[in-house]
Amino acid sequence: MDNPIDKKLTFWGASPIIFLFTILYSIAVITINYFLKPVFQIDFIPHNILITLAFVLLGIGIPFYFITLLTIKNAFKQKKLLTTGVFSICRNPLAAVVTFFLLPGFLLLFDSWLLLTIPLFLYGMFKILINREEVLMEREFGQDYIKYRKNTSAIFPKVWKYKKVQSDENTGEQTRP
């Protein structure tokens, strides 16, 4: 693999390579599920409960995805390290929302436990490949990032650690509390 020291921090970070591996895994799992669907059907939970759970997960995940995406976009333009709001509960809230809300919510609609291994695979790829991005973040933000990394979970949201985003009244810019 490329040396992360030679790379620059990009908007998407490690996401494209994680996404690629997850897509390849998903193609295999979807193919197996297609031919053996009855074997993998979730029959121990009533279908209406699965559908309700799917829509709850999607209902939570979709707004959080777009809020987080816009927040990252603005911070990236300003070259800011975000440590408040959703970033106070985990360092990679976009990965968290996809892994724990969007993918499971969408996949529950297909009533297959095999398909639910896709978010598990995604999480595994994240854990393996996120280190490249972490090196770049440390290089970009130095001790601030090291302290943030030490105190904040990579992907599992710790809601009890939430720090409200504060705005500077004069400029409207987000500031640290």
Question: How many separate helices?
Answer: 5
| Element-by-element helix/strand order | HHHHHEE
Multimerization state: single chain
Biggest pleated-sheet summary: 2 strands, antiparallel
Total number of beta strands: 2
Strand proportion = under 5%
Descriptive keywords:
61% helix; single chain; two-stranded antiparallel ribbon; 177 residues; mainly alpha
Written description of the protein model:
By secondary structure, this protein is mostly helical. The chain is built from 5 helices and 2 strands. It has a domain of 120 residues. Helix 1 runs antiparallel to helix 5, helix 3 runs antiparallel to helix 4 and helix 4 packs antiparallel against helix 5. It has a two-stranded antiparallel ribbon.
Walk me through the topology:
Elements: H1 15-35, H2 37-40, H3 47-78, H4 93-108, H5 117-151, E1 166-167, E2 174-175
Helix pairs in contact: 1-5, 3-4, 4-5
